[in-house]
Amino acid sequence: MSDGVTYRELRNINTEFSRLNLLLELCLLIHEIKSPELDLEDSHRQMMIAIQEKLSSGKPLEDENLDEMMNNLKAIRSGLCLWLHLSEICKANQLNESHYLQKHSKVC
After folding, report:
1. What is the percent of the chain where pLDDT is above 70?
2. What is the DSSP string of 3-51?
3. Domain parsing of the chain, residue ranges
4. What integer is the mean pLDDT of 84-97?
5. Most buried residue among 13, 29, 67, 92 by CB atoms closer than 10 A?
6. Run of H or E including 103
7. Helices 63-92 and 42-56, interaxial angle, to 10°?
8. What is the pTM of this model?
9. CA 62 to each of CA 18, 37, 53: distance values in angstroms, whole numbers, following the listed order
10. Residue 54: count of CB within 10 angstroms of its CB
């Protein structure tokens, strides 16, 4: 047995950290979308469910798959942040979100 760590072992450690980061991001996102006024798109809900199922399946995941799933969660989060920002603007100006979106659809 060697004292050093092999490239394969380092890659496996890196993959496991990526998987844990993805799981943490998913948990944080699930916690954030529990707001009663937030209505997440069905496609985003399905994507999050699929990611959760893949992570809990126990099957090994490749780095590329983990990166793709993380990018999907980042896209959901950016849409969520935009919606929350829009909601804050509308509340501050006493506007309805759908009215604001219709009026400013080219911006959004």
Report:
1. 67
2. SSPPHHHHHHHHHHHHHHHHHHHHHHHHHHTT-TT----HHHHHHHHHH
3. 7-103
4. 62
5. 29
6. helix 97-103
7. 140
8. 0.69
9. 10, 36, 15
10. 15
- Per-residue DSSP letters for 61-79? --HHHHHHHHHHHHHHHHH
Collapsing DSSP to helix, strand or coil, 2 comes out as: coil
60 has a pLDDT exceeding 80: yes
Contact residues for 12 (Cβ-Cβ < 8 A; gap 6+): none
5: region left, alpha or beta (phi > 0 left; psi from -120 to 50 alpha): beta
pLDDT of residue 104: 45
Q: Tokens for 49?
A: 């469910």
Backbone angles phi, psi at 104, to 5 degrees: -120, 35
CA 17 from centroid of its chain's CA atoms: 17
